[in-house]
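Whether sequence alone determines local backbone shape is best considered at the level of individual chains. When preparing material for the folding task, we compiled for one chain both its residues and its backbone structure tokens. No coordinates are needed to read the tokens, only the vocabulary itself. For completeness, the protein is quoted in full, as a sequence line and a line of structure tokens:
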Amino acid sequence: MTLTPEQQAEIAEARATSRSTLRATSEGMEKHLYTAHEVLDHGLVRVIDYMGDDAAITQAARVSYGRGTKAVQNDEGLIRYLMRHWHSTPFEMCEVKFHVKLPVFVARQWIRHRTANVNEYSARYSILDREFYIPAPEHLAAQSTVNNQGRGELLEGEEAARVLDILRDDAMRSYDHYEDMLSQEGQKGLARELARMNLPANVYTQWYWKVDLHNLFHFLRLRADAHAQYEIRAYAETMCGIVRDWVPLAYGAFEDYRLGGVTLSGKAIEVLKRRLKGESVTQENSGMSKGEWREFEGVWR
């Protein structure tokens, strides 16, 4: 991971400055403020600011639902109730702002989550660093034969070495040409907003990403899942650790009901009922497609 001297100085200054406040703070989140967590080969995630804690969730719920929450005896029970019954608004009372450094191809996948505020480093105004994501050998894999979006068997030996050489050579060559086009030595040089088009999708970019807890949980449910692409999952797993420290009660409920839970279709529930009665149910007589059946069976293995 590479931080610029300016970023390192900013982090050092921010961590050295103590501020008194009347607003609620999270002891767990305070230790993450401004700390850069390494991700992939040159990436990072760090918390710039946050608002709220577990108490903010229950406070909002009790305002919204009034006497309807009286039967829930404690904050943890209330939070678990809210998560279990998909009450999203109270979780929107907490927000966090991340600084993320990530490869462009990961950013383009990430930006599909349109429920956050994003401000990205602009290659129209600044020159991108010579930093590229090159996968570790254990993450080089062939195309999956059963999942058009996934990876299959690992590449090994000469094949893996050949692919890594191509990735490095192409990235460096593209950046060399990028610099050449920008050159001001005896020539006008191409505008930065045009020269950037030549850069590969594994070059690193940076952004500030601000999101409320409800939508962050939605992001983490999809991207921390074992089926998510490894590169974005690496960021999601790092963020899971941060959120666990920030709102431990809410994260515990999220981990139980979302990360560790499953949603079953009406057909799947019917199959379970039939099996509990002792009936032998197969894909052919389940009413499910082959894909549905494969996913259903995968839950129980």
